[in-house]
Specification:
CATH topology of one domain: Spore Coat Polysaccharide Biosynthesis Protein SpsA, Chain A
Strand content: 15-25%
Radius of gyration: 19 Å
Largest sheet: 7 strands, mixed
CATH superfamily of one domain: Spore Coat Polysaccharide Biosynthesis Protein SpsA, Chain A
Number of helices: 8
Distance between the termini: 41 Å
């Protein structure tokens, strides 16, 4: 029986993976933020999936221990090596395999995330199986009113996944407000562990990267190569859940700092402190992050923690 939000046993997981070395921020920054700002959720278990434990310094391991963070190994499928972000599917799948039987829910974050508030609102309600944020912009998404048959990429991934396009549901992209066939971000996803959604994500990725048609399409289109992992995740969720079993997460969770100027003041947080969690991409790599409104306490905390020695 699934737990209710009040007594759910939830795990926070992310990986060390960062495409082309970004973000250049501390591996433990997200974990530190949960412990500092998570409120009633600050003591939730946190796992970091790492593809090469030998690269971690003794000081990082000591800090992880002090934060009560478990660092666990995962293996990246070598077939994923030329597809940006594909390694996340392997990390999430391994975490899910290990977590089965120990926790009810898993919250998968991207490494370039920062928790700035209590994340209990991200828990699945009793009737939902998966939670998500829509993509920020359409990029390779398929408009809801367009048949997959007119898009070679989506036609092929639907065919390989076995997902029926008429049952997939829809999602509205956050920034450009496009009504898309269900297409979600891979930066914050919640799931009931027993469903195996992340293992399905990895399985779909393996099928997609080994397919000659998709390999050719991705070789010709950089956006499709970059966002193949996001299409695979969306279809994995669609394959294991019905639209009415999915829970769209609040706007202020996974808030995209790289779209701050494009977002309207009526939707973006008044201050960063008002969000639940942030996705900063490379916004914390230099000094440009200082342009965002925030409390002195949060500014001081970020400045102190974001580039800790590893």
């Amino acid at each position: 029986m699934s737990a209710t939000p009040e007594n759910a046993n939830c795990l926070v997981v992310y990986s060390n993976y960062a495409y082309r070395g970004t973000p250049q921020t501390d591996l433990l920054l997200l974990a530190e933020s949960v412990r500092a700002f998570g409120g009633s959720t600050r003591d939730w278990p946190i796992w970091i999936m790492c593809d090469d434990l030998s690269r971690l310094s003794a000081s990082t391991l000591r800090r992880a221990s002090g934060l009560r963070v478990s660092i666990l190994p995962f293996a990246i499928d070598q077939a994923f090596s030329t597809y940006p972000f594909a390694a996340k599917a392997s990390a999430a799948a391994e975490a899910e395999r290990i977590a089965e039987g120990f926790v009810d829910q898993l919250l998968w974050f991207d490494r370039d995330s920062l928790v700035v508030g209590d994340i209990s609102s991200l828990l699945l309600t009793h009737d939902k199986k998966c939670s998500f944020r829509p993509v920020n912009v359409k990029n390779i998404g398929l408009d809801a009113g367009v048949s997959r048959k007119v898009d070679p990429f989506w036609s092929r991934v639907f065919e390989l996944s076995g997902v029926d396009e008429s049952d997939i549901g829809t999602a509205i992209s956050y920034i450009d407000r496009r009504n898309l066939r269900f297409y979600i971000a891979a930066g914050l996803v919640g799931a009931r562990v027993e469903l195996g959604i992340f293992q399905e994500w990895e399985r779909f990725m393996r099928g997609f990267v080994s397919d000659d048609t998709l390999r050719a399409l991705c070789a010709e289109s950089e956006p499709h190569r970059i966002f193949l992992h996001q299409a695979a995740l969306s279809l994995a969720v669609a394959h294991t859940t019905h639209p009415n079993e999915r829970q769209e997460l609040p706007i202020l969770s996974m808030y995209p700092l790289n779209f701050w100027e494009e977002d309207g003041p009526e939707r973006r947080p008044r201050m960063l402190d008002d969000a639940i969690s942030l996705r900063y991409d490379t916004e914390l790599d230099g000094d440009a992050w200082c342009r965002f409104p925030m409390s002195e306490a949060l500014e001081r905390w970020i400045r102190t923690h974001m580039h800790a020695d590893e």
